[in-house]
Amino acid sequence: MLMTTRTKKRGAVVAAAAGAAFALGVSPALAATDAIAYTNDAGWGGWAKFVSNGDRLDVCDTRADGKRVHGELIYTTSTGSFRRVAEDADGANNGCASKSGDIPEGTRVTVRVCLKDGADGREEYCATKQGGVA
To answer: pTM value?
Structure first.
């Protein structure tokens, strides 16, 4: 197969663009990724989940143990560090709590979940999950 001058020029342009992106440190876009953390008590009393479609934190109590589930979504953008909090305090399997708001695309998020004994109770059985992407 013969390469024409036009084909060679196209190949050179593509190679130059790829080299420039590499040299400038341009990274490919991160795919939106959900992340879920479960409390670390026996049998998981609750969970918190980052849902990338809608930038939502869902928090759910799954055990009738008198405790509430406290969830946090933690992330940093060019304008600062943020912590979004939601609690499911209405008992096990009575629906979940949610908080949502816009997070810049490609932002990495961390989910943290704990059990609490009342609104001002001490956090216990906490767990953290990294790897979510808005």
So the answer is: 0.76
